[in-house]
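Cont'd.
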Amino acid sequence: MNEMTQPTPRTTLHEELVGKLREMIFSGELRGGDRVPEQKLCDQLGVSRTPLREALKVLGNEGLLELLPNRGARVATLSEADIDEIFPVMGALEALSGELACANLTDAEFAEIRAMHYQMALHHTRGELAPYFQLNRQIHDAILKAARNPTLEAQYNALVGRIRLARYWSNMSKERWDQAMKEHEEILSALEARDGKLLSGILSQHLENKRRTVRQAFREGGTEVQGTGVAYD
Amino acid sequence: MNEMTQPTPRTTLHEELVGKLREMIFSGELRGGDRVPEQKLCDQLGVSRTPLREALKVLGNEGLLELLPNRGARVATLSEADIDEIFPVMGALEALSGELACANLTDAEFAEIRAMHYQMALHHTRGELAPYFQLNRQIHDAILKAARNPTLEAQYNALVGRIRLARYWSNMSKERWDQAMKEHEEILSALEARDGKLLSGILSQHLENKRRTVRQAFREGGTEVQGTGVAYD
DNA sequence: TGCTACTAAATTGTATGCAAAAATCAACAC
DNA sequence: GTGTTGATTTTTGCATACAATTTAGTAGCA
């Protein structure tokens, strides 16, 4: 009766592998352009090729891997064109998430977002980039969650995943950082007023500005960062 | 030298299968809720389970199939909640496509869309629903193409695929049909003026109206139609 | 040296085999 | 008639085996 194995994995191997491989890509263990040799990964992860290959097909379909017939998989890379392509779509989705969030946000959720906002503002004044980025992301995530639309969430996260293939800090200028912080003030006040249309417009512009920042970092070959994935705002 | 086989399929079996299975779902050969027995499909398609299973995983990730651990795959079904969830996202994407199309549309492309529009108007006045639907779809596709954003296209088409799981005509009322036609007049004129913001708003509203129509058809259990997938406007 | 042709090794694509889990069904008790 | 138990069949998950394709490596030659 006393099973010392997993309580109940209740998941298939290939699903786990999808998650693991995603993490390996985001963490930089697998870098853009790298080949993904099946056998080597199988040995490393202790599974056979069958479930691994199933996972590769899924990630290929998501755009995180590039699958070349008879020539294996490569971690996808991001071009400037890709960035210019993906951000507008993210912008449209984030704008929608803002609008829906305004319609559905509870007071408790708003309070939490406000708390994160002020914490983030503190990091901004102190010039602490990394924790700023983390809170920034949590805020956007909270808004997305508040939209109460899993399909929207999934689509958005798929795009975030692709953007994370570009793994560098945006070397954000002081001006851009201040600007971003100002945009976040507007985001918070639109949220508080539950003004969906207003928030939607702000977020759309916010994402367009992000695009420019990331694009520039890409051009300049921004500082690579280990293990955290891309951070931007 | 004279190979009488395929010129060169240049594609893997699992990719073909993804396409074939999608078609089988859209055509209604596989209906929502149906189990997808691996062995039976393998015999039917003349392939082994390995590539088929790879395809199933991909379609599961796309939301066209529901994958239950140890219990196989089922063709996904669409609930009212799903419709309410998916259409707003499609609306945001279609609004973006309109905006980008206005920025990128060539005169030739516009001319073609206008031609399709008038053809569609003709079918409307004649009360020919099926060809109306077809042209309607072609017009929206042409706008999407004109946006010149493959990522947007892919995301949009994934959602259209899920909506197509609901396989019935929207029993469109005369009023709604007239209204839809009027919206299409506005779409055409905004396109001609290359007024992105305007078109974006029209399309967003247009999709919200579609949502209501489809939702109602769903509620009323609209007339099922064989082989064409869902049609709506 | 640089190029081509050919061979061998490695890697991928597909099929098959086997163990584990679920579904089916029949006998039985109530 | 209903519901439960347990054996049998079916189906799925994963591993392995084999075939096909690509890659690498080497020898031959200009």
